[in-house]
Amino acid sequence: MSDQTPYPNSAPELPPLRILIVEDDPMMQLGLEQSLEDYPQFTIVGQATDGYLGVEAALKLKPDVVVMDIGLPRMDGIEATKKIKEALPDVRIVMLTSHTTENEVIAALSSGADAYCIKGTNVDRLIAAIAAAQEGATYLDPQIARRVIDHLKPPSPAASITGQLSQRELEVLKLMVEGKSNPEIAAVLYLSPNTVKTHIRGIMNKLAVDDRVQAAVVALRSGLV
């Protein structure tokens, strides 16, 4: 993963977080640990190499965030996510995987995953996913968003959306569809992070959606972006 971010070694919206990594590839484990430890807010509290051990570690360590692969020995990441969420519903789980089929994405989200990232993504996307999960939202990698559109909100005409949203809200929505984090949107539009949060809340209220992923899906299905 690249370590080029618009906020080097900083994740300004995030509180201190304890992170558990569940990944069976030693090189991926090492890369994740090194990338995340560059951020002073993050503490890696443990690592596990299969789903069964991942569940055990989560129950013992009670991390704030679990970064989870899907293709794990003994117990896959989807089943491990389900078990962790049943026992610790407040733990945020970020899938980081090479699995990209529609069924796998839907199964992961249905099991309780809060975010879904593709391996090979740059670190700022992963940070955005962690930030969204921590805020109680759902993050879906832009590479796979279109694959799950039919399972979410029904289509809305573009004219309907443009009539509901202000020009600034439309600009924010387009950047959300691109997978940009709140700090990135703030930087592009020369706004404060709090102003961006306010616009996003307004967008979700006007589109009658529960999180930023559904807002992005509505925009994609409407042909707005």
Radius of gyration, in angstroms, nearest whole number: 17 Å
Largest beta sheet: what is the strand line-up? 2-1-3-4-5-6
Task: Tell me the series of helices and strands, N- to C-terminal.
Answer: EHEHEHEHEHEHHHHHH
Strand content: 5-15%
Nearest-integer average pLDDT: 82
Taking pLDDT < 50 over at least 5 consecutive residues as the criterion, the unreliable ranges are: 1-10
What's the overall geometry? globular
If helices are DSSP runs of H or I spanning 4 or more residues, what is the number of helices? Answer: 11
- The termini sit apart by 27 Å
Structural class: alpha/beta
Number of strands: 6
Biggest β-sheet strands, sense, barrel: 6 strands, parallel
Q: Percent of residues in helical segments?
A: 40-55%
List keywords for this structure.
globular, alpha/beta, 50% helix, disordered N terminus
